[in-house]
Specification:
3 copies of one chain form a homotrimer.
Chain A lengths: L1 E2 L7 H12 L17 H12 L7 E5 L10 E6 L2 E6 L13 E4 L15 H14 L23 E2 L5 E8 L5 E6 L9 E4 L20 E5 L4 E6 L4 H5 L6 E5 L6
Parallel strand pairs in A: 1-2, 2-4
Antiparallel strand pairs in A: 3-4, 3-5, 6-7, 7-8, 7-12, 8-11, 9-12, 10-11
Helix pairs in contact in A: 1-3
C-alpha cells in the first residue's frame, strides 16, 4: 500500500479491513502513507523504488489521486510477476516501465456494493486488489487499455558546454536531495554538481564517507538517481533546496 | 489497534509483542496511533469509521485513556461478530451502537503477572485481547456490566428559522472538517452551510468535483457525517476552523 | 524492525520486501522508524524496552547507523531466545545485556548480490535476518567477535549530601522525561526530584493519579527507569527540559 492519506485518519485502516475481509492468507505491507497530499510525482518515485524489492505475486495498491470522482480511469496493470492497482494518472508509470497488460477496473463484482465518489481506495482499489489476490484473472476486472498514462518527468537539458541539468524530484527524511538525473545522463567527465540558488561546488563521491562530517557530496544512490547529501547532516537545510530546484552537473572549460 | 501513543516510543510495539507472544496465527493491524493525546472523542470517531470494515472475529483494542490507574473499568464488549477491548470511558461508544455483552476485565489469567498502573495497554488490554483471540469465552474475562459509558456528543441545536447547528468533531489529514451533523439531521431544504467565524456560504454538493479547484463544498462523507472540504485544498486552513467550531446548516427565509 | 529511516521514504518498505522475498511465513513488526536521525542512545533505549515483550525466536533488526560505509562491523547476536541484527555501535547494548554469541556479518550468501555503501539495512541486515529466520545457524553468518560495543550511558554521580544525579535520556510522545536513573540507583530516603533549570521540587509517587491534573510527579516507569511526568500534560513543556538535562534525586539535610 502506498497513499497520501496519512495515518491519523481511518482511511488506510478501512482499506486494510476491506482487503482482509475479502482475501485470506495475505500479508499487508505499508510502503508509506506520507506522500505529500496529491503529489503524484513523489508517490511515483517512492513506489518505483520500493516495489521492486517485493516477492513474486505481490499486488501493489497505490492511491495518490487528485482526480478522484472525475474521468481518469481506475486501472490494474501486470508488470513481470507483480500487479499494480491504482488511478491512471502517472502514479504507476515509474514502477511499471513495460506494462504487459492494462485493464480498466469496471466489473461490478470487484467493487463494494456502494462506491463512494470520494473514497475509491476503500470502495474500488482495495476490493479489486482482493479479487486479484484471490487468484482471479486480470482479464476479469474490465476491458483492456492500450496505454499507461506517463509521468511528466522534467526534461534533461544539455547546455552549450556539455553540462546537463535536471531537477530535485524528492527530498527525503534525512534531507538528501534526489534529482531527476540518472547515472546514464551524466557527461563522461565532469567537475562537480551545483544546485540552483547556491554557489557551492558539490564534489562527486561514492558514499557519505568520501567526505568529512558536515560536508556535501553527490553520488548515484541505491535507486540509480544522482543524489546530493551532507554527511551526518541535511543537504536540504544546508543548500536551502526544495523539490523542483534545478540541479546541474557541470563540465568546466578547463576540465575538457 | 487504535491508541494515542504515537509511534516514536516502545509502547505500541510492546503491546504487539504481548499479543504475538500469547496468541498464534493472528494478523495485527494498526488503525492509528496518532489520536491526539487523550482525545477520547477523536479516537471514538476514527474507531467507529474504521472498525466496521474488518472481517468477522476481529478483536479491536482501543486505548485513549486519560483515567488510567483510576476507577474507570477496563472492559470487553461484543457487538455483532466483533469484540472490542478498552477503557469504559466513551471511546467504544460510537463503534458499538448496540452492545450485546459487556464485561469488566478482572480475571487474573488475562493479565500480565505484574500490572503496571500506567500501562494498561500492554499489561491488561493486550493480554485480554490475546485471551479472546485464542478463542476463550467473553464470559471468562470478568463480571458483566449493564451499560457502556456513552460519548458526550455535542447537542444538535435547532434554531428558530429551522436551521440546525452542530460542531466540527474532527479535522482530518487533508484539512477536511467532519461535523457532528448526520444526513438524517439535515433540514429537508436548506440553502448552504456556514462555519463559525467565517462569512462564506458553503454550497452543498455530492463530491469534490462538484466545484472548481480551491472552492469550498459540503457533502455527506463516506462515514455518513456532513463534511466541509476544499477541492484540492484545506478547508481547515481556508476557514481557519478547528475542532469544536460551530457548523450551521442554514435555512434561509427566502428559500422557504 | 527499529530504524531512524522515517516512513516517508521507500527505505523501510524495501527492507520488508527483501525480508518477505527471502523468508516464508514471517510476521514483520515495526517497533519504530521515528528514532531521531543517528540517535544511537534513543534507539538503544526504545529497542531495549520493546524487544523484551516479543516471543521466542524473534529476530530483531535495528539500524541507527551514523557510521554506515565505514569500519564499524555489522553483527548478529544471540541473547536468550532472541537474535539481534544491526551495527556494532552500541545500539544493541541495552537490549542485549548478556550476549551469548556475537558474529560479524560477512558470509557472501547472506548479502544481496550488490551491497550498496549507503543502505546496509536493505542490502545486508535484512538478508542476514532472513537467513536466520529460515533457520540457518548463527555460526554461518561470519566469524565470532569477543565483545559487543557498549553504549556510553551518562555516569551516575553521587553528591556530598547523598543526592544522586543522572540525565534525561529520552523525551517520549507525551512529554514524559525518561532519566538514566534506575530504581536501584535511588537513595533509600529522599525528598524529591529536581530537573536542571527548574526550581520545582517534583514529588515521588506511584502513578499519574498520585497527583492532581497538571501537577508534576516522578515515578519508576514500566521500563524500570525514573520518569518525570505531568498528569494529563507534558513535563517537557512545563519544565522546558530536553534530552541531556541533569536530573537530581535530592536527599535534604533536614530529612536525614
Amino acid at each position: 500500500l502506498l497513499t497520501d492519506f496519512g495515518t491519523i485518519d481511518p482511511y488506510v485502516a478501512s482499506m486494510k479491513g476491506v482487503l482482509l475481509s475479502r482475501a485470506d492468507n495475505i500479508t499487508v505491507v505499508d510502503i508509506t502513507h506520507e506522500i505529500a497530499p496529491q503529489d503524484v510525482m513523489g508517490g511515483a518515485m517512492v513506489l518505483a523504488e520500493a516495489a521492486r524489492w517485493f516477492p513474486p505475486s505481490t499486488v501493489h495498491i497505490a492511491v495518490v489521486d487528485p482526480g478522484v470522482g472525475t474521468a481518469r480511469e481506475p486501472i490494474a496493470v501486470r508488470s513481470g510477476t507483480h500487479l499494480f492497482v491504482g488511478p491512471n494518472n502517472g502514479l504507476l508509470a515509474l514502477a511499471v516501465r513495460h506494462p504487459e497488460e492494462v485493464r480498466v477496473l469496471s466489473a461490478p463484482d470487484i467493487q463494494l456494493a456502494s462506491v463512494s465518489r470520494t473514497f475509491h481506495g476503500r470502495d474500488l482499489f482495495a476490493p479489486a486488489a482482493a479479487f486479484l489476490l484471490r487468484g482471479r484473472a486480470l482479464a476479469d476486472v474490465g476491458p483492456p487499455l492500450d496505454e499507461l498514462c506517463p509521468l511528466p518527468l522534467p526534461p534533461l537539458r544539455t547546455l552549450g558546454d556539455g553540462s546537463v541539468e535536471g531537477e530535485v524530484l524528492h527530498v527525503d527524511h534525512f534531507g538528501n536531495l534526489v534529482t531527476s538525473l540518472r547515472a546514464i545522463d551524466l557527461p563522461p567527465t565532469f567537475e562537480h554538481i551545483r544546485l540552483e540558488g547556491s554557489h557551492r561546488a558539490i564534489p562527486f563521491g561514492t558514499t557519505y564517507s568520501s567526505v568529512e562530517r558536515g560536508e556535501l557530496v553527490a553520488y548515484v544512490g541505491s535507486a540509480g538517481w544522482l543524489e546530493v547529501a551532507v554527511r551526518e547532516g541535511s543537504a536540504a537545510a544546508l543548500l536551502n533546496a526544495r523539490r523542483g530546484a534545478r540541479a546541474r552537473v557541470v563540465v568546466q572549460r578547463g576540465a575538457r
